[in-house]
Design a protein that fits this description.
It is built from twelve helices and eight strands. Helix 3 packs across helix 10 and helix 5 runs parallel beside helix 6. The chain has one domain: NAD(P)-binding Rossmann-like Domain (Rossmann fold, 3-Layer(aba) Sandwich). Helix 7 links the parallel strand 6 and strand 7. By secondary structure, it is an alpha/beta fold. It has an eight-stranded mixed beta sheet with strand order 1-4-3-2-5-6-7-8, sandwiched between helices.
Length: about 300
């Protein structure tokens, strides 16, 4: 497939030896065809928060399928995970800003005969600056990645979870999900969608014994700003400058995510200051929030 590369580590070592199967009268070929390894699939897995979550899950001996764009980095990452933790670590390299990517991932999972017991929709990208000055293509790609691919992956893998009455879906939101953000208009709107969609889906899945978690990090020390073109004056204007604004590390965010999962939460915000901020935001009208954000951005970025 174009823009689609995959490789898996050797996970047959985790299956019964052929002689054991034969000794109890089981045909090995039939067993391997029917065997479905349970795995956690995580998008945006090669860096930042995603990579930190991967490492924490590997520490818990969870078998993983990593999804990101860089096949070379993913291959090295999977090899290290297998060597360090003795887990099955596989990857699928593709670009989730492409409309067909989610379907290609789903098809590959079926080919590998894997069962997704946890889906973590972590992949995302931001944008910043005056909406009219941002490339339309980049904004459309953002919507495809942050919204459409997330919805598609959830829709594709949810039926098997419903059938088994078991499974977990984690959608990564953002503090931007709680307010309109001038000069980050499209990104904030995409995360507001993720918040609304996930909270609604939580209730639909509740009768089926499925766990759904909306997890919202705040400013985190990753390559998010550079990937989104939010640097220098833009970062300062949006209060997302890592040097002057409080930020968590990816490892701190991953730890809070796992604590939320362990407690069976459906909604969690990473970071005490972020939780306080979110509570305050619910008391303020959006017109007040947006006018102040816009004024501060123009002042700080000198436009």
């Amino acid at each position: 497939m174009d823009e689609f590369t995959s490789i898996s580590t050797d996970f047959q070592t985790q299956l019964p030896d052929i002689w054991i199967l034969q000794s109890v009268g089981i045909t090995p070929t039939l067993f391997y065809k029917s065997y479905r390894m349970k795995v956690t699939l995580i998008t945006g897995a090669s860096g930042g928060i995603g990579e930190a979550i991967v490492n924490r899950l590997a520490e818990r001996n969870q078998n993983l399928v990593l999804v990101a764009r860089n096949s070379e980095k993913l291959e090295k990452q999977c090899r290290k995970l297998k060597e360090r933790f003795g887990i099955s670590a596989q990857f699928i390299a593709c670009d989730l800003s492409k409309p067909k990517a989610a379907f290609e991932i789903f098809e590959e999972i079926q080919i590998r005969n894997l069962e997704i017991e946890m889906l973590i929709n972590n992949a995302g990208i931001g944008s910043g600056g005056e909406f009219v000055s941002i490339s339309l293509k980049s904004e459309v790609d953002l919507l495809q990645l942050n919204i459409l691919s997330l919805v598609a992956l959830t829709h594709l893998f949810l039926p098997s979870m419903l059938k088994e009455r078991s499974g977990t879906i984690v959608n990564i939101g953002s503090m931007a999900a709680f307010m309109p953000v001038p000069y980050m208009a499209t990104y904030a709107a995409s995360k507001a969608f993720v918040r609304s969609f996930t909270q609604a889906l939580t209730q639909e899945c509740a009768p089926h014994n499925l766990k759904v978690l909306l997890f919202c990090p705040g400013l985190t020390k990753t390559n998010f700003n550079s990937a989104a073109g939010i640097e220098n004056e833009k970062a300062i204007g949006l209060s997302s400058d890592y040097n002057n604004s409080p930020a968590q590390t990816p490892q701190q965010v991953a730890d809070e995510l796992l604590r939320a999962l362990d407690k069976g939460k459906h909604f969690a915000i990473s970071g005490r200051l972020n939780r306080i901020s979110a509570a305050i935001l619910t008391l303020l009208p959006n017109t007040f929030i947006t006018s102040n954000i816009a004024r501060m951005y123009r002042k700080r970025s000198k436009i």
